[in-house]
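pinned: reference chain
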Amino acid sequence: MNYDKILPKFKYNLNPIENRIIVRKEAICSCCNEKTEFVYEGPFYSIEDVEVICPWCIEDGKAAQKYYGRFQDTSACEKVISKESLDELIYRTPGYSGWQQEVWLSHCGDFCAFIGYVGWSEIEELVNELEEDLDKIKRAYKLTQEELENALEYGSLQGYLFKCVVCGKNRLAVDCD
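pinned: its structure tokens
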């Protein structure tokens, strides 16, 4: 079955099914009280402990509004030009699960779309395009190029690939275990 036709599309999270952020599971959505075949498995910052959120209650902002919650921590988001973009990201976009604090990258004045979890083998062909991010990561973690490659491929670093929604440039964020 092609779920792309029935699930909402998210500007800033392009692959929530493939990345297991939204999973197929029958449940009753805590927000709309409707039966759903898909539930959100990512972070949700709220005072209440919300059990089940369906993708449609994320897309229309009902979950964030009902529970006074956010899908992203604004302090971990890079700067963007428009408040509308920030609102869409934090109130109407499924997040992703990081090892530490999830960050959301931006480019061309807007947030980038989260593409997926990556190791070195998935980004090796993007080295030139990701050079600025890779240099920043190497400085922050005090790594050589070889150490960075090994950490991303075999363990202590997890990569998060993003793509600019304006120009298509790839960006990379990482965190460690």
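why pinned: The mean pLDDT is 93. The first strand starts at residue 22 and ends at 28.
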